[in-house]
Amino acid sequence: MKNLSIFRAGIFLLLLGFVTPLLAQPYPNPWRNVEWGDLPDGRTWGAVGDLDVDPDGEHLWAVVRCDATERDRFGDECLDSDLDSVLKFDAEGNVVESFGGGMFIWPHGIDVDEDGNIYVTDAVSQARIPDGDMRGHQVVKFSPTGEVLMVLGTPGVQGSGENQFTSPADVVIGDNGDIFIADGHNTPGNNRVVKYDRDGNFIKTWGKTGYAPGEFRVLHTIAIDQRGRIFVGDRSNNRLQIFDQDGNFISQWTQFGRPSGIFFDEHDRIYVADSESDIEQNPGWEMGIRIGDAELGWVDEFVLYAPGDPHVIIGNGAEFVAVDAAGNMYGGEPIPRNLQKYIRVRP
């Protein structure tokens, strides 16, 4: 009997050895990061902001904040720089187009419409805008070669009017050209979605600061799935909120962690970057990129940010994510100042 008990204990310990790693990594990670991306003329990487894929499915657009010399500088990296902050990369990681130098203080969100036009938000806080500086609180639409086609918001002036923003975090364009802006980046800001038509005419707004459905605390990211649903990364509430394009609440998902970035690929998959799950802001969760079914919300893959320390309350790893037509995934990392490329190594 004693030997049987010892045998059973041995089997239990053996099984525990297999199960424990599975508990630590609850979803498979079929992705591996590879060396990729180079900046011209000896430029070093600044904080990498939002990402999107060109309509050709091959080129990648990225916000790369300017200053790369002061490691502790964060929130106004382009204040006194004329470096281009909107960069286009080819499949090999070479910069083939760039613009936006001197136009932004803290470029943050980006979206590319079906015609290849690029929309960029300036999410700088009012406290970091020098007196008389007419930048910030705006969304700029560029042509594919950098010509300014439209400016939404009142540059340098925060507010909550029909053509005012307070640190707009992100922007997404609907199939019909409607413009949806996540306004704004800071908890005491407007915490609303603002909708315009393709010509920049105000249509409506929804949302306010709070915890209930349809209320927000830091709208950090916004995206549209294949069904036309609006997904908002309600980051400080640790959830995704889902709406129709008239602002009617549909559902909320918490299974993707603390969302900083959202991307939908052409195979109806959702990718959510979580750069802030830590011991205070979302205890019990780990930083990384969660991937799953865009329709139903099942999570089935997780790219763990291995160096993530839950005791460090600054955000780390990928804050933004995008996937090209070949299935390669990219993570924009502000604090580590990396543009990370991942390839799928197994089905």
Textual characterization of the structure:
The chain has 347 residues and is mostly beta strands. It has one domain: TolB, C-terminal domain (Neuraminidase, 6 Propeller), CATH 2.120.10.30. The protein has one helix and 24 strands. The protein has one helix at residues 2-24; strands at 31-34, 48-53, 60-64, 86-89, 95-99, 107-112, 118-122, 138-142, 148-152, 168-173, 179-183, 192-196, 202-206, 219-224, 230-234, 239-243, 249-253, 261-264, 269-274, 288-293, 299-304, 320-323, 329-333, 338-344. It is globular, with a radius of gyration of 21 Å.
Topology overview:
Elements: H1 2-24, E1 31-34, E2 48-53, E3 60-64, E4 86-89, E5 95-99, E6 107-112, E7 118-122, E8 138-142, E9 148-152, E10 168-173, E11 179-183, E12 192-196, E13 202-206, E14 219-224, E15 230-234, E16 239-243, E17 249-253, E18 261-264, E19 269-274, E20 288-293, E21 299-304, E22 320-323, E23 329-333, E24 338-344
Antiparallel strand pairs: 1-24, 2-3, 3-4, 4-5, 6-7, 7-8, 8-9, 10-11, 11-12, 12-13, 14-15, 15-16, 16-17, 18-19, 19-20, 20-21, 22-23, 23-24
